[in-house]
Write a sequence for this structure.
């Protein structure tokens, strides 16, 4: 693996988007049709990897079908980006077989979030290529005028100028301080599942951004304990927390709050920690680049700002 970070081409009107489904199938056909129309209305040409996305249980096809589609689209020189249909589950089942050198030979932007975290971190580990944790076809692209798609288009355009990741809203300080490093992260569960595999990038000196959905405080506690026990938390330059949604505790059940869990694991690390990044499993969110240099300023005033120092595309 080269230690030289690489960047896919910038996107603009007329770019060709390849649609892939390496994880779960769309929940309904109207969702993907609306997403394809949304991409086209944004000025993109669209090429789908398959005529249909028949579900095999919770998967968008068999492992071999999803892997073959991914390799075929990674190799296609006519494509400028690969945008995933949705997350869900399935990337981990094929990750060991993914030939990331195909994307290195034909650079294009990989876009998705949630389960796609594993694919994006594997891509960075094996090729040092940047990607974007951003809008997916059967979800956010149904509303191309929404915040997620508008932010993604600005982030990946050739005219993008580095600055605050969310120009309209700052983050909040959990632990004060400042740091610079490569921005890496995504879904917390997927990151912990890469520990001990050959697909987790070196997180030493990184600014780690995290989100999670459907996990109660005690489950998040266990996931963060895994990062701590693996020695990862002690090596980070900074941490930025997005949404930890749909993790409500059963009524009447004793529990720590999510905030208390964060304070327990992050309070004494000696690095800046911010919360409130508009990123996660909810509609109005920013797109977050993976593999770019960033700066985190968590101020004593309580206001924090995560800034990207370079574009994810060139």
């Amino acid at each position: 693996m080269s230690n030289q970070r690489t960047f896919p081409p910038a996107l603009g009107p007329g770019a060709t988007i390849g649609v892939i489904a390496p994880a779960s199938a769309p929940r309904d056909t109207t969702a993907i049709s609306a997403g394809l129309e949304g991409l086209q209305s944004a000025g993109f040409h669209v090429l789908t990897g398959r005529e249909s996305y028949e579900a095999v249980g919770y998967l968008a096809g068999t492992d071999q079908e999803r892997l073959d589609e991914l390799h075929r689209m990674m190799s296609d020189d006519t494509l400028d980006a690969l945008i995933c249909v949705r997350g869900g589950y399935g990337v981990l089942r094929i990750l060991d077989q993914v030939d990331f050198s195909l994307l290195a030979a034909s650079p294009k932007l990989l876009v998705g979030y949630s389960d796609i975290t594993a694919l994006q971190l594997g891509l960075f580990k094996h090729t040092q290529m940047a990607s974007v944790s951003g809008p997916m076809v059967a979800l956010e692209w149904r509303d191309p005028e929404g915040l997620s798609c508008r932010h993604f288009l600005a982030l990946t355009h050739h005219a993008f100028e580095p600055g605050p990741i969310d120009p309209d809203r700052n983050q909040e300080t959990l632990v004060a301080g400042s740091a610079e490093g490569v921005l890496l992260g995504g879904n917390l569960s997927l990151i912990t599942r890469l520990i001990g595999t050959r697909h987790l990038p070196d997180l030493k000196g990184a600014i780690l951004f995290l989100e999670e959905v459907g996990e109660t405080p005690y489950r998040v506690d266990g996931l963060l304990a895994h990062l701590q026990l693996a020695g990862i938390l002690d090596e980070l330059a900074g941490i930025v927390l997005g949404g930890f949604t749909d993790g409500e505790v059963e009524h009447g059940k004793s529990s720590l709050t999510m905030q208390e869990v964060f304070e327990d694991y992050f309070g004494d690390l000696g690095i800046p920690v911010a919360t409130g990044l508009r990123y996660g499993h909810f509609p109005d969110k920013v797109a977050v680049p993976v593999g770019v240099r960033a700066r985190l300023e968590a101020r004593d005033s309580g206001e924090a700002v995560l800034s990207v120092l370079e574009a994810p595309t060139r």
Observations:
- The first strand starts at residue 16 and ends at 20.
- The radius of gyration is 18 Å.
